[in-house]
Amino acid sequence: MSFSNVLRLSFCLASGLLVAACGQGGGGSGDPRAANRSSSTETATRSYQLVEQSCDTGKVEIKASSEAEAAKGLCDALLSDERNRGCARSLRQKYFEITCPGQAWLPLSIVRSMDNTQPPSDRSRDQLREWQADQQARRFELNLVVQKFEISDRISKPFASEAKQLADSLMSCGLSELGPKCLEDVTFTSDSAKQLVTIGGLVYFVTELKLRSVSVPLLFKFPVSNTNTGSFKAPELAVGNIEISRSLTARGAQSLATFVSNPANFETMIVVTPEVETEKSAWLRLQKPRDVREVYHMAKLILNASVQRGNLQKFNSKLASAILDAREIIASSDRGDYQTVILELLLSELGAPKKQAVAVANSILISKSSGPHSLAAALVLDDQPSRLDLRPVVMKALESQSWRLREIAVVALMKTPSSTAVETSIMARIDDPVDDVQRTAIAASDKMKLGEQHFSTIQLLSESNSWRTRKQSAILLGRLATEPAVNQVISQLDDSVGEVQTAAREILEAKTLNASAVQGLARILASNNWSARRDASNLLGKISDNSATISLISGLDDHVSEVQSAITTQLMKRKLTTLHVAPLVKKVSSDNWRVRQNTARLLGKIDGLEATNALIEALDDHVDEVQAEIVTQLKTRTLTLASVRPLKTKLGSDKWPVRRSAARMLGQIQAKESREALQVQLAAEHVDEVKQQILASLRALR
Questions:
Q1: pTM of the predicted model, to two decimals?
Q2: Which residues, in sequence order, are bridge partners of residue 46?
């Protein structure tokens, strides 16, 4: 015989148990979990009848469309005092443990309402005595039942004040799937995940509540159907400094399942049974709210419901008006956090007219309730810029964690009279991580009248990680007519983001630059950013000072053709003198033939023997294009006796085109030294093209 059958028979013999499961006619054979099952394939039936000390449950029958549903219904029935006439609890528990393996015994009478205080009229004398004893015991229990947000009056006097405070908090906050939305001195810890248990389609969650010096369990009970997945994520919970695991261990329980399976643990149990709030009931509660928390939670419930239906606009105005009507309740609260979120609700989620939000904000400020009122102050200041008494509070709001508040604070402060402190605080928001706030601050800064006193603040912005902030800093610096401001913009030419670089370039192009800008632009010429080097080259070209010319020449051998071209173009526009020959000669030996070609072109702009001889010295360049450029430049020059010696040297070049060019230029210098040099070379020359040029030059010198 199985253990379950032995246990079942002992129930029958010891207790006068009348159970259909004890076999036909109350016998002692058969499986109790198969009791009175219908032979029909369409329905499944379970039933039982239990008698304990003359208290009869009556026949309890469960019919379902499947065996699984019938089994679940049987377990639920065994847990219900109401379905069993309040009888045979210990027998029901034993039967429950046999028929419902893996589930914890938690009779539903634990969470029943205390409203029924009259003795049952249909009970025997023994039953009446049992009921009276039960009521006597309950007077010493802490049965706090929140149902439809009403609290039982049957709370022992020592804890009445604390319990009512808890109930009032629950009524004001509302209940979520994981318990109250707000409880004074209640926080959550991840350890609570171990304290969740599902019993008969309900989720139970227990923690500890400190009432005066006594620690009592606080139980939350709600249906699994409250979530889409049928499971609950771990809440965050602890009451005071009490840890759930420690408190349960102290009560001899290893887990919530073992804890709730022992009825003795519920002798001092506070039970909270959340009821799902409907949109209709939320509207009713919003008409006469108890406090600011109720206003917010009911408004959010209504808003969420209207969003789900897709008719948000229809209820926006009505809901905003309801909140406005409750402004006295809102204003009288000392919960600044709730006042703030209500104002944000009006502004952002409901899109209410600003005048409604301002009206609520005014009420909050007039009431002088304690708590942070930054948003209220910002809204009122925006509406009444003359309220300078609010400005310090609103300036602090610029550092708020709420981006919406920071944005409103910027707008409000800009309407007040000019102040350097206010302006610099607003400028700091140009670096705000939220785009909306950043854009608002940028728009505000564009309207400011700037001076040197703003430089340090703007300079800090130029070091931001946000490219938009750096771009705006360049724009603002461009409005300051000071050398430090110009040099700061110059440094931003080297920005890694093209939009910042472009902004800096355009600002500098619009300015009249002088020698003080050369050093900064010269540093940009050493940048790894080729476009920055190109921009710096073009800007150096705007500066007439010789230091700008020297800087341009130093960058002439840039390895990027676009930069080379820009520098060459700027140098070609300038008046070059013999002072520039020496730095240009250094570029004649560049590895880049285009640099050597451009250098020849620039040397050709300089009058004087030094430039001429420098060109002649470079005449034997191994690249034809460079040779051609040098020859072109020398053709335009008037050669003198002083050039005979370097030309005579080139007659000894191993490149015959160089020798031919030297012979041609010697023919332009009417001097004995020219003829002698040509005649010596004629005797040694073996290339016909060079010989012909030498003969032609000698004829020109006769």
A1: 0.58
A2: 62
